[in-house]
Amino acid sequence: MSKRTITLKDTKNHSIRTVPLAEKAHKTLREALKFHDLRHEATSRFVEAGLSDQQVASITGHKSMQMLRRYTHLRCEDLVSQIKNI
Asked: CA-to-CA distance for 69 and 23, rounded, in angstroms?
């Protein structure tokens, strides 16, 4: 997005394309993506902290467990420390 373009990979016609962005759209998307990235990070850290799926979904606003799982990205190094006593 540094060149005020965005590449769309998941489109209705399944064709990847690059789209130019107006300045206002560019600024809005930059800010929105930062929040979106933070949501992914927070979701994963809540799960790692031991909160239940229902608790995490209540905090993050995910309406289905499928979407919650999509947003959860656990760090491999954290999983290692959890399984080393098994």
From this structure: 34
How distant, in Å, are the alpha carbons of 3, 40, 65, 67, 85 from that of 70?
29, 9, 9, 5, 28
The end-to-end CA distance of the chain, in Å, is: 44
Tell me the CA distances in angstroms from 15 to 7, 9, 73, one per residue in order.
11, 7, 27
Nearest Cα to Cα of residue 6 among 37, 35, 17, 27: 17
Task: Give pTM, 2 decimals.
Answer: 0.54
How much of the chain, in percent, has pLDDT values that exceed 90? 19
Dmax over CA atoms of the chain, in Å, equals: 54
